[in-house]
Amino acid sequence: FEGMTIGELAKHTNESISTLQEILVNVGEKFDSEFDTLSIDIAELVAMETGVNVRRLHSNEGAEIFPRPAVVTVMGHVDHGKTSLLDALRQTSVAAREAGGITQHLGAFVVSMPSGASITFLDTPGHAAFSAMRARGAAVTDVVVLVVAADDGVMPQTLEAMSHAKAAKVPIVVAINKCDKPAADPERVKVQLASEGLLLEEMGGDVQVVEVSAVNKTGLDNLEEALLLQADLMDLKARIDGPAQAYVVEARLDRGRGPLATAIVKAGTLVCGQHVVVGAEWGRIRAIRDMMGNLTDKAKPAMPVEIEGLRGLPMAGDDIIVVESEERARMLSAGRKKKYEKDRLRKIDEGRTEAPEPSE
Ligand code: GDP
Ligand code: MG
């Protein structure tokens, strides 16, 4: 993870070495030749100036990788029970049982199984959050739980969720909810889903279907097992050593503590005291709290944490990268702000040219 040479960066960005060297001069970096190694944040800054999507520069090549928990998002039609299901699942978490309920709202929670395995649930159901995160390049979700009410069946937002998951290449596990209701007809739901092209397991495909009731809290074990099985199939792994690559899933302003962001680490370990750039914001991590609100000094992959110490409020989907100094953090943040502003103006401009001509 030592960064890359100017020559390698030229390849990544499709820019000439002289262009990159010019940018380096502009940002006040010294270099001798194209074989000079740039730190990852300088490489990112330079790449950003060329307009390249910089997230791809962060690679896990060569690092030792370990299994990590799956990160799951719940989606489905309004009123089909997303919030109820998340609440029920949250109550199955060991932490919730031990502490008599999770008091802290983090935007994510972890359910730990007796086997020692765990699942991380994003606590913000809905397509808007999912799309916003994806639009920002944040591939946080590994699996989508598609909630369909057994009495209501497939509805417009069910289909929308299916197409979001498909576009993101995220596998679906179906939870047919409200199976306690007299009007529940899970078989009908399955037929509907199949006719929409979902290849259900019991029909020879690989999409698991679980019947649950969020209200009666039945079938939750089966859902958790199905998610673990799905995660196993995906063989999810992450590097634990080295600088963290993380995403914001939620952010809020606390009067006393300032900007707070719930983050999920994708790779590496986030450590208290580190300088970070978060989207276009920056800061130094002053405190890390786990989902119980307890202070901790680090965050490992798939562990939701709340971080404190940012200078501004980031947005859901923003990436978090670790840089080596406050100066670098400021510089990268300023570079990103400039780039975001440029992108914003370009979008407005495009909107203008795409708008239909006013009719006479
Ligand atoms: P969301 O819009 O998808 O988040 O749906 P909610 O969780 O808010 O649930 C909508 C309504 O369905 C609420 O009145 C819930 O109490 C009810 N509901 C959710 N899950 C179940 C269930 O398993 N059984 C029954 N009978 N009602 C449910
Ligand atoms: Mg809801």
Brief overview:
By secondary structure, the protein is an alpha+beta fold.
Describe the structure.
- It is a single chain.
- Helices cover 33% and strands 26% of the residues.
- It has 10 helices and 19 strands.
- The strands form 5 sheets. A 6-stranded mixed β-sheet has the order 5-6-4-7-8-9, with helices on both faces. It has a 6-stranded antiparallel barrel with strand order 11-12-18-15-14-19. It has a two-stranded antiparallel ribbon with strand order 1-2.
- Helix 3 runs parallel beside helix 10.
- The mean pLDDT is 86.
- The site of guanosine-5'-diphosphate has 16 residues, from helix 4.
List strands and helices in order, with pairings.
Elements (H helix, E strand, L loop, with lengths): L3 E2 H8 L3 H10 L10 E2 L1 H10 L15 E3 L2 E7 L5 H10 L2 H6 L8 E5 L5 E5 L4 H9 L7 E7 L6 H12 L4 E6 L8 H10 L13 E3 L8 H15 L2 E3 L5 E10 L3 E10 L2 E2 L3 E4 L2 E9 L5 E2 L1 E2 L4 E7 L8 E5 L2 H29 L6
Parallel strand pairs: 4-6, 4-7, 7-8, 8-9
Antiparallel strand pairs: 1-2, 3-10, 5-6, 11-12, 11-19, 12-18, 13-17, 14-15, 14-19, 15-16, 15-18
Helix pairs in contact: 3-10
Bound molecules: guanosine-5'-diphosphate and magnesium ion.
